[in-house]
Write a structure and sequence with these properties.
By secondary structure, this protein is an alpha/beta fold. A hairpin with a 2-residue loop joins strand 18 and strand 19. The longest helix has 33 residues. The chain is globular, with a radius of gyration of 33 Å. It binds zinc ion. One of its GO terms (cellular component) is anaerobic ribonucleoside-triphosphate reductase complex. Pfam families: ATP-cone, DUF7347, NRDD. GO terms for molecular function: ATP binding; DNA-binding transcription factor activity; ribonucleoside-diphosphate reductase activity, thioredoxin disulfide as acceptor; ribonucleoside-triphosphate reductase (thioredoxin) activity.
Length: 760
């Protein structure tokens, strides 16, 4: 035993030998040269001395040579001795008041209170003397706790607690750390497939979302504005990318057809496409344009006048060839996945012929003007609709793109009627087309819709190009109307006053957003595609992009306020007054601010707001029947579950559409069996006489992914093979877009199942 002690103590009596033990306890094993390298010893001059140290350690039975790897490892005894050395060192550190910190850059360093002071000055703008005092106090309190290992996160919380105790709330706010607890991260991974398009990348982005949502509410917006969202007075759509992305963009295809496409905006990182000469190349460039833009927008994109701008390339090509090229294009668009929407909605704006204002415009792709290519524009339109009618390789309908067909008075010839009939076939078969009624004067020269159905028009600067292209919605803030009704307690004046106050908050937040995006493009350089200069002009027109204020819960607010529903004329007239107040507020925005109002949200908003309201107001007070789940009417002015003759629903909706310049939609849900194409055609013609701006028809369908059977209506069991499990997927339109049943939330399911459907 005496020999053993002597050998161990002798072995430890030298710093090099102690360092070798510590090194092997950290690294597990290392070769002769590896150890020398790590201890910064010279392999030439010090090899002999080093060998001597190793032999002594081996003699003391602390290390041994692992024959199989040729590396040194600790023996059991060596491991125990090394542990003992670590704890002595730590005790010494604690005695000296020295603690170890696991830092956020994943290193371990001795505790240094000056770092706390530095952080307080740098991040919170605290005065130097205060920062020093706080850091000293933190050091004193931490050392009393005798903690072995501190983490940077823990020290931060500790400092925050001291700031709170001292009433220094503002400094604490700046030091807040963003991120997810370990438990939440695990839950996120486990539950992601129920809320987003399943993929590892989706989970990754969800985690990032939570950081940026907090950042938006804590840092980007003033405190009280962030609190308004948390309290449910209003809702910032896309708050997870509020500081990073624009909501949507409407492209001008001609730019890229004429000049080619640089997908990274600079040509430095990604290959550049030259201007296309064929339809195949033109579609390829369009597809890459949407793929690259996907990274910049949180909601959607649009390609307006698609069949007009591509017509010169399709000129002289057979219908079959055009269709085959378009089929590939549609498949490509459907790979443009956005984790939240499943497939990111991309709108394709379509014309029944060449609209008057484009007839004389110089064409890109072939010499002449667009008016020369009317026939080719019909070829593209019809081929596109046929592809959508036929569906994918299994006959399943495409849920993207959103076809937007404009119905203009001026184009009423036979060809247009034939195509309109085809559009009606598509609407009655899969619901996969939206109609924009351009017959009413208030729609102006042009209207373009994005994939999220937000609307831009030519009224802006009185110019269809500046108004509708190379711009989009910057973002969307939603007002919670029932909350206002609760506060107004039946007083009209208070209601409208409170509404205006909220509109101020929304407007302010949106101008902050514009400033942020301006910075991202011009200073931070993270949006090079939008900021690229084409033909002497920046591609994305930030100054023409709109600031959108939307609302939810109009019928619920009215019911709370008046006790009546919108079928009552006095209730309807107050509802009109509410929307008028919003619309006139928008019209009186500062010159140069494109402020618009809509009743469309960019994400499900109602559910969150309703639940918050129900914490303070009982269900009954909201004028709701008990069986109706807590969800305010969203994307519509009349609840889909309310039993109303279609004529009445149209009459109520058309009161609002022309005031909602930022977007509106009348969705007509079809009962089974759906009408014939001709029957729907007659209905569509009648609708053009109304003041409804945008409308669509929804046909539900069920797809069996076992036997491939696809039938209309929502089925619980496959009629062909009897499958009733998770591979039987139902499709219905939720907030304007088709969604597969695995991604329906509980509230969505109730609305889908209880909506009123019409036999036309
Ligand atoms: Zn089946």
């Amino acid at each position: 035993m005496v020999d053993l002690y002597e050998n161990i103590l002798n072995a430890l009596a030298n710093k090099v030998r102690a360092d070798i033990l510590k090194l092997l306890s950290k690294d597990g094993k290392a070769s002769f040269t590896e150890i020398m390298e790590k201890l910064r010893m010279d392999p030439k001059s010090e090899a002999g001395k080093f060998g001597y140290h190793l032999r002594l350690l081996m003699k003391a039975n602390l290390i041994t040579l692992d024959e199989s790897t040729g590396k040194y490892i600790l023996t059991d005894l060596g491991r125990q001795v090394a542990e003992y050395m670590w704890s002595i060192e730590e005790a010494a550190r604690i005695k000296k008041g020295e603690m170890l910190v696991r830092t956020s850059s994943l290193t371990i360093e001795p505790f240094d209170r000056r770092k706390i002071a530095e952080v307080l000055v740098r991040e919170a703008n605290a005065p130097r003397t205060l920062a020093d005092a706080i850091s000293k106090e933190a050091e004193e309190r931490l050392s009393k706790l005798q903690i072995r290992y501190l983490t940077a996160a823990l020290i931060r919380e500790f400092v925050n607690a001291i700031l709170l105790e001292k009433g220094l709330e503002e400094y604490r706010h700046s030091l807040t750390r963003l991120g997810l607890p370990v438990y939440d991260t695990t839950e996120l991974i486990k539950n992601a497939s129920k809320v987003v398009l399943p993929s590892p990348d989706s989970v990754h982005r969800l985690a990032g979302d939570s950081v940026f949502e907090e950042y938006t509410l804590l840092k980007a917006l003033p405190r009280s504005r962030g609190d308004a969202h948390l309290a449910g007075v209003l809702h910032y759509n896309n708050s997870q990318s509020f500081v990073l992305k624009i909501a949507n963009i409407q492209h001008d295809l001609r730019i890229f057809l004429k000049s080619g496409l640089s997908p990274d905006g600079s040509g430095i990182y990604l290959p550049v496409h030259k201007p296309p000469l064929t339809l195949k190349d033109a579609l390829s460039i369009t597809s890459k344009l949407t793929s690259t833009t996907l990274h910049y927008v949180s909601s959607s994109q649009a390609l307006d006048m698609f069949n007009v701008f591509l017509a010169p390339y399709a000129d002289g090509i057979s219908y079959e060839d055009v269709k085959s090229l378009l089929y590939d294009f549609i498949q490509d668009l459907n790979i443009n996945q956005d984790y939240r929407h499943c497939v990111q909605p991309i709108a394709i704006g379509l014309e029944l012929g060449i609209p008057k204002f484009l007839e004389g415009e110089k064409a890109v792709g072939k010499s002449g003007v667009y008016g020369d290519f009317e026939e080719a524009s019909f070829t593209i339109l019809n081929a596109l609709m046929d592809i959508m009618l036929e569906g994918d390789g299994t006959g399943k309908p495409f849920t993207s793109p959103q076809l937007i067909l404009k119905l203009r008075k001026e184009v009423a010839e036979a060809k247009a009627q034939e195509s309109l009939l085809k559009a009606c076939s598509l609407a009655t078969k899969w619901g996969a087309i939206y109609f924009v009624n351009m017959h009413q004067g208030w729609q102006g020269v042009n209207v373009s819709l994005c994939g999220d159905l937000s609307r831009l028009d030519s009224e802006w600067k009185n110019d269809w190009e500046l108004g509708c292209l190379r711009a989009g919605v910057l973002d969307n803030v939603t007002v919670n109307l029932p909350r206002i009704a609760m506060e107004a307690r039946g007083d009209d004046d208070i209601f409208l006053e409170r509404l205006e106050e909220l509109l101020d908050l929304c407007y302010e937040a949106l101008t902050i957003k514009r400033k942020i995006i301006e910075e991202r493009i011009a200073i931070d350089g993270i949006m090079p595609f939008l900021g690229q200069v084409v033909n002497g002009d920046v591609y994305y027109h930030l100054e023409n992009s709109s600031l959108l204020i939307s609302y939810v819960g109009l019928p619920e607010a009215i019911s709370f306020h008046t006790g009546l529903d919108l079928t009552d004329s006095s209730a309807l007239s107050f509802a009109k007054k509410i929307v008028q107040t919003m619309s006139s507020y928008a019209q009186h925005a500062k010159t140069g601010d494109r402020l618009v109002v809509s009743n469309l949200t960019f994400e499900p908003v109602s559910s969150r707001l309703t639940k918050l309201d129900l914490k303070t107001a009982p269900q009954k007070a909201l004028g709701r029947r008990k069986e109706i789940p807590p969800i305010y009417t969203e994307f519509s002015n009349t609840p889909q579950y309310q039993v109303l003759p279609l004529k009445k629903r149209v009459e109520i909706e058309e009161v609002f559409h022309q005031m909602l310049k930022g977007g509106h939609l009348l969705e007509v849900k079809l009962a089974e069996p759906p009408p014939s194409a001709k029957g729907l055609y007659d209905f569509v013609r009648k609708m053009t006489e109304s003041n409804i701006g945008t409308f669509c028809f929804t046909r539900d369908y069920t797809v069996c992914n076992i036997c491939g059977n696809i039938v209309g209506g929502l089925k619980e069991k496959c009629m062909r093979c009897g499958h009733s499990g998770y591979k039987l997927v139902k499709f219905s339109r939720i907030n304007g877009l088709y969604k597969p049943s695995p991604l329906w939330r509980e509230d969505d399911k109730w609305v889908v199942l209880n909506s009123q459907r019409y036999l036309l």
